[in-house]
Write a structure and sequence with these properties.
Organism: Streptomyces fagopyri
Number of helices: 2
Protein name: Gas vesicle protein
Oligomer: single chain
CATH topology: Nuclear Transport Factor 2, Chain: A
CATH class: Alpha Beta
Distance between the termini: 73 Å
Number of strands: 4
């Protein structure tokens, strides 16, 4: 007969109290911002336009495919500014631009 395991009283689970390691570098910040934004808005990310270290963590501009169309050059994309903290947790985001894939900045 298998013995049931129960956590000991008075001791918190280390998994529940463990914090993720802090983000090291722009690449990790960009990946964390993309994953968080995709999870919230449900649109696939296309890439990252900018990454900037800020006092509270990171500011990342993520490009997202909002409306796929045929031909692909007419698809609608958007740029989102995503703020994440030192641990990669999303603090805030906002859409800063919406554009057609085939268009160029003026």
């Amino acid at each position: 007969m298998a013995e049931e395991r129960r956590p000991r009283a008075g001791k918190a689970s280390t998994a529940a109290t463990r914090r993720p390691p802090p983000i090291r570098g722009a690449g990790q910040a960009a990946r964390a911002a993309c994953q968080s934004l995709e999870g919230l808005i449900g649109h696939p990310t296309e890439g990252v336009s900018a990454v900037k270290r800020v006092e509270e963590g990171w500011c990342v501009v993520v490009d997202v495919l909002e409306l796929p169309r045929i031909p692909d050059t007419t698809s609608l994309l958007a740029s989102y500014e995503v703020q994440i903290d030192q641990d990669g947790e999303l603090m805030e985001y906002s859409r800063i631009r919406r554009y057609r894939r085939g268009s160029a900045d003026e």
